[in-house]
TrEMBL record:
PROSITE patterns: GLYCOSYL_HYDROL_F1_1. The keyword Signal does not apply. This is Beta-glucosidase. It holds the Pfam family Glyco_hydro_1. It comes from the Bacteria. Belongs to the glycosyl hydrolase 1 family. Gene3D superfamilies: Glycosidases (3.20.20.80). The active site is at residue 365. Keywords: Glycosidase, Hydrolase.
Length: 463
């Protein structure tokens, strides 16, 4: 079968500033929570590798853009680091950062690669975290100022903006499940953080639209379809719907529809942990929804009705309403510990079509992190990552089917372009089309999947 994609389909990959750029002496970048957390607790990071060098994109971006061309990119998403552009989060703009991002964007454009720019990828400036981070209303104001500065500086050339990447992750990682700084467990705080992120997004969208810059603005969400253990068991189905409300609809509904899911609001009211807000906030969220949606898809969520006792009635958690279901015989990526379920990508696109007004969307991340890829180096020094090619193909077939059925999906981006720093997993699992050799000053080598992707992009599909 021939899988042909719509004209002008976006082919490319995604990265983020904090995971790829690195720092050099004299770049005047301020500290983000990642720089700070690594300084405080380096042992929390795989092999104690921190974000200071990352993949050295800050100095190697021109070379990297040539490699993007060789790997079929007609588009590429990265993020501006707030702590690079405005080192203390609220004060003066760093001229070195402006020069860097200008040159990066211009270089992409002059190589016919459309830059898609995200504003927040988990990287709170440290000085703002000290005042509460997303817990604090002042952070919302500071973020909106930062967003406006970005639109003013780069909005003449960047035509697709995103307010956040995976805003549920700072909620989960920072305030529920302890994998991001400040590493707390507190649902009340988690709710406040999520609310402020939603509000910040809506306020930035409002400003962007007021500026009439002739582009689009959206949000990037990691959607994890929640499948009940047993479709015919109403308790399982209800539990899955609650998990969906907590982890997907908490951002998807306000972003696209301007409202919060009722099931979630009910629970939060019952627990008496409604977030603090000002009178006009809900209207701001209602009136300023996204133009397009980025969808990151890695894994589904398997849910069953709550069977285990609630861990601590004095400290509520989302997991008081469902149990995760360990489905037998599921296909796994053993390195990351994530289930691989290709049809999930189709289910998300279909849900978007049927229940979210078929809003314009694209797959903004999908990918497979594998440890020890050196095992697959052939005699010519190339990593033969056939497993990655199979992974992408299997997902693309489902994207294709969803589009055939009417989904308004305009592109597919892989996570990631070149191997990059995966937060506390550092360089454990490699995701890129392009290998980065940390022992050899970050030397780049295109993997087999990179050449394969180039063919797919050239043919706008595959057989
Ligand atoms: C997404 C993020 O969750 O998945 C990326 O947007 C992240 O920042 C990627 O790196 C892969 O996940 P991880 O945790 O293996 O790096």
């Amino acid at each position: 079968m021939n899988y042909k994609f719509p004209e002008n389909f976006l082919w490319g990959s995604a990265a983020s500033g904090p995971q790829s750029e690195g720092r050099i002496h004299g770049d005047l970048k301020g500290e983000s929570i990642w720089d700070y957390w690594y300084e405080e607790e380096p042992e929390k990071f795989f092999n104690k590798v921190g974000p200071e060098k990352a993949s050295q994109v800050y100095t190697k971006y021109k070379e990297d853009i040539q490699l993007m061309k060789k790997t079929g990119h007609n588009s590429f998403r990265t993020s501006i680091q707030w702590s690079r552009l405005i080192p203390d989060g609220v004060g003066a703009v760093n001229p070195e950062a402006v020069a860097f991002y200008n040159s990066y964007i211009d270089e992409l454009l002059s190589n016919d690669i459309e830059p898609l720019i995200n504003l927040y990828h988990f990287d709170m400036p440290k000085s703002l975290q000290e005042q509460g981070g997303w817990m604090s209303r002042q952070t919302v104001d500071a973020y909106v100022r930062y967003a406006k500065i970005c639109f003013e500086l780069f909005g003449d050339r960047v035509k697709k903006w995103f307010t956040h990447n995976e805003p549920i992750v700072p909620v989960e990682g920072g305030y529920l499940y302890q994998f991001h700084y400040p590493n707390e467990v507190n649902l009340k705080k988690a709710v406040q953080v999520g609310f402020h992120e939603n509000l910040a997004s809506a306020q930035a969208i409002k400003i962007y639209h007021e500026m009439e810059l002739d582009g689009e603005i959206g949000i990037i969400l990691n959607l994890t379809p929640s499948y009940p253990r047993d479709d015919s068991n109403p308790e399982d189905v209800k539990a899955a719907a609650i998990a969906d409300a907590f982890f997907n609809r908490s951002f998807l509904d306000p972003a696209v529809k301007g409202t919060f899911p009722e099931e979630l609001v009910e629970i939060i009211k019952e627990l008496d942990i409604l977030p603090k807000m000002e009178v006009e906030d809900l209207l701001t969220i209602q009136e300023n929804t996204v133009d397009l949606l980025g969808i990151n898809y890695y894994q589904p969520r398997r849910i069953k009705a709550k069977e285990t006792p609630i861990a601590d009635i004095n400290h509520p958690m989302p997991d008081d309403y469902f149990d995760n279901y360990d489905m037998p015989n599921k296909k796994m990526n053993p390195y990351r510990g994530w289930e691989i379920y290709e049809k999930g990508i189709y289910d998300i696109l279909t849900n978007t079509r049927e229940n979210y007004g078929n809003i314009k969307c694209y797959i903004s991340e999908n990918g497979m992190g594998v440890e020890g890829e050196e095992r697959f180096i052939n005699k010519d020094g190339q990593i033969e990552d056939d497993y990655r090619i199979a992974f992408v193909k299997d997902h693309l077939r489902y994207v294709h089917q969803a589009i055939q059925e009417g989904a308004n999906c305009i592109g597919y981006h892989m996570w990631t372009c070149m191997d990059n720093w995966s937060w506390t997993n550092a360089y454990k699992n490699r995701y890129g089309f392009i290998a980065v050799n940390l022992e050899q000053d970050g030397q780049r080598t295109i993997k087999k999947s990179g050449y394969w992707f180039n063919e797919v992009s050239e043919k706008n599909g595959f057989n």
